[in-house]
Structures are given as C-alpha cells and as structure tokens.
C-alpha cells in the first residue's frame, strides 16, 4: 500500500473485505482504520471515494464501535464533557 492509503474496503460479490496495511506499527490506529473501512462497508457507501461526508460517517461509525460514548461516560464520569466530547465517541471527537 502507498503512504496515503492505510486501509480500504472491497466487495467481492456478496463478500465484504477490509484490506489494511500490515506494516503499520500503530495498533490503535490500525484498529481505527479497519473500523472506519468496516463503516464504509456496512453503511453501503458505494458513492465516490473521497467524499468528506462519507468519510465523516465512516469515522463516526468506527469511533462508536471502538469507544462507545455511553460506556465511556459510565467509566469516566465527567471526563468526556470536560474535554469537549459530548455527542460522539472519544475516539472520533477527541483527536
């Protein structure tokens, strides 16, 4: 993969695939890349690649999948609001 592509989704008939760069040394980022691409697949983003709206939706999906706001709010009472993470998961909103 190139330096610009960390992961990408692909449909092979009815089978979804996510291809991720195995050389990445940041496991947390690799998980987010994979969750983001899974979002594209599950949200059926068949439109033009590179759309900012579609990327924001896929990022929100991946963020909520990996760090659900409700669960974080229970485990870190008051902390999310203090850093501006109120309506989406900490992973997506607090970069």
TrEMBL record:
Residue ranges occupied by any IrrE N-terminal-like domain in the UniProt entry: 8-77
Pfam family, one: Peptidase_M78
Gene3D superfamilies (alphabetical): 1.10.10.2910
Residue ranges that the Swiss-Prot or TrEMBL entry lists as coiled coil: none
Protein's recorded name: IrrE N-terminal-like domain-containing protein
